[in-house]
């Protein structure tokens, strides 16, 4: 995470990359209801970049990610007011299952998560929803459609 007193123009509040060191960045302070002031960004590194830097010091990783974010935006960034890194060793599935969930009707047990669909929070939600629908259909119920 990196916070800046001066706004950073990334072109959008959320950015995704399909190659390079970064895969995703989100302006947390741009979310509805957040106080105005400094601008906070959460940046995710690619699995390959993370593997290459897994044992590096967290402060060094944060500095490297700041440089990668600047390079990905093709613009110099202001000095951050806050710069932190956390290494989630097992947070990103590299090869999803390819099914929305797993269900064993004999035991009425199932499994779901982002690892089924894609390495994103919304994929975990969709997977959980799919499992809920499967369980409900086993007992003859249906879930209401979600309004979007």
In short, what is this structure?
With 148 residues, the protein is of the alpha+beta class.
What does the secondary structure layout of this molecule look like, with pairings?
Blueprint: E1 2-4, E2 14-16, E3 22-27, E4 39-45, H1 47-52, H2 58-73, E5 82-83, E6 102-104, E7 109-111, H3 114-117, H4 121-138
Antiparallel strand pairs: 1-4, 1-5, 2-3, 3-4, 6-7
Describe this structure as you would to a colleague.
- It contains four helices and seven strands, in the order E-E-E-E-H-H-E-E-E-H-H.
- With 148 residues, it is an alpha+beta fold.
- The protein has two domains: 2-83, Alpha-Beta Complex (Polyamine Oxidase, Chain A, domain 2), CATH 3.90.660.10; 93-148, no CATH class.
- The strands form two sheets. It has a five-stranded antiparallel β-sheet with strand order 2-3-4-1-5.
Helix-strand sequence = EEEEHHEEEHH
Number of strands: 7
Approximate helicity band:
25-40%
What strand line-up does the widest sheet have? 2-3-4-1-5
Residue share in β-strands: 15-25%
CATH top level assignment of the largest domain:
Alpha Beta
- What is the residue-averaged pLDDT? 89
Low-confidence stretches: none
Based on secondary structure, the structural category is: alpha+beta
Shape estimate: elongated
Radius of gyration: 19 Å
Instruction: Characterize the biggest β-sheet.
Output: 5 strands, antiparallel
**Could you tell me how far the N terminus lies from the C terminus, measured between alpha carbons in angstroms?**
30 Å
Based on the structure given, which CATH architecture of the largest domain is correct?
Answer: Alpha-Beta Complex
- Reported by name, the CATH topology of the largest domain is Polyamine Oxidase, Chain A, domain 2
